[in-house]
Structure formats: structure tokens, C-alpha cells
Amino acid sequence: MSKSTNLPSFGSRISLAIGAFFKTLGDAEFAARVRDDGIGPVAAPAPAPVAAPAPAPAPLREATPDAALQLLSLFQREARLIDFTQENLSGYSDADIGAAARVVHEGCAKVLREHFSIDAIRSEAEGSRVTLPEGFDAAAVRLTGNVVGKAPFTGTLSHRGWRASSVSLPKLAEAHDAKVLAPAEVEL
């Protein structure tokens, strides 16, 4: 999700600043978190720690496009997804677009059901309060909002997340050109 563009007004920032000021005076742990996280002014710059050499970055895997192209081809065949996204919709009514979207939705759902097993990452209902323990899987759970401090974190589940537990794309012949997503059609 992208960063919120709903920034607080000047008046709201004054209120936040005054609240943070008094919370800092009254709560030593909060004051330490502000100081250690580098949020707000610092009385004196801390001496720079001697940094250990940075570990070598993990090598990145190069994704081959064939599987992605094959999936896109399946979405085109079953849902006409490419046709739908390439169409200029400005000349159509909302009702026409909605009817077309229903066909695309049904076709895409069919492809997903036939070729993937998709499970929710979190089993709780969206809107539930959840606690993430120390060591939670940060690749499977993204923290949003005011993320301060260390786990455990308690917040509201806004999206359950999805994980593919299995993938079964059809096998391709060696000579298959995956870049042809949908052949042109010529009626005789």
C-alpha cells in the first residue's frame, strides 16, 4: 500500500506536537523510543558507532518471463483480460462496463481456481485485533500506520493476505512461443 497523502493540517500538527511534548515529559520509555528512533530533535548528536562491514547483498534470482506470459495468456483465453484492459472504455456506460467486468471476473476466477491453490495468510476476520509476536514473518505481514518500537505489535487486521500453496500451470511444448498471448484470428 502506498504512503497516505492525507497529511495533518498545521493546527493538527500543533496539537500532535503538544501531546508528544507532554507524553515525552511524563513517559520515560516513550522518550527513549523517540530518542532511539531518531524521531524529533536530539539534544546532542550521538557518536557514530564503528560500523562492521556490510554483508554482501543476497543474489537476486532472475525471473523468467515464460510462466508470467503463460498466465497472462490463460487470463486472456478464459477472461479476455487483455482485450478488456486494452479497450477504451470512455464510450461505454457504467452498466456496460460492469457487465464486461463480470465476465472478466468470472474468467479470472476460473483460471485462479484451476491453476492455483490460494490460502489466506491470516485466519482472523478483517477488522479483528491481532498481536504479532517477536519474530513474525515480515514477508507475509506488512505493518502499516504508526510503526514504532519492537514486537510484539497489536493492531487491526485490514487485509488477510494471500499465499499460493500450489501452482500447476500447463506444460508447454519446447517450440511454444510464450510471447504470443492470443493469436490473431482470421475468419474465412
Q: How are the secondary structure elements laid out?
A:
Layout lengths: L9 H17 L1 H10 L27 H15 L1 H6 L7 H22 E5 L8 E4 L20 E4 L5 E6 L21
Antiparallel strand pairs: 1-4, 2-3
Describe this protein's structure.
The two termini are 49 Å apart. The longest helix is centred in the middle third of the chain and has 22 residues, at 94-115. The strands form two sheets. This protein has a two-stranded antiparallel ribbon. A two-stranded antiparallel ribbon has the order 2-3. The chain is built from five helices and four strands; from the N terminus they run H-H-H-H-H-E-E-E-E. The chain is α+β, with helices and mostly antiparallel strands. It has helices at 10-26, 28-37, 65-79, 81-86, 94-115, and strands at 116-120, 129-132, 153-156, 162-167. The relative contact order is 0.12.
Question: Summed up, what is this model?
Answer:
This protein is an alpha+beta fold and 188 residues long. It has five helices and four strands; from the N terminus they run αααααββββ.
List the defining traits of the structure above.
single chain; two-stranded antiparallel sheet; 4 strands; 37% helix; 188 residues; 5 helices; two-stranded antiparallel ribbon; alpha+beta
Q: Helix amount, in percent?
A: 25-40%
Mean pLDDT: 85
Determine the structural class based on helices, strands and strand pairing: alpha+beta
Number of helices: 5
Number of strands: 4
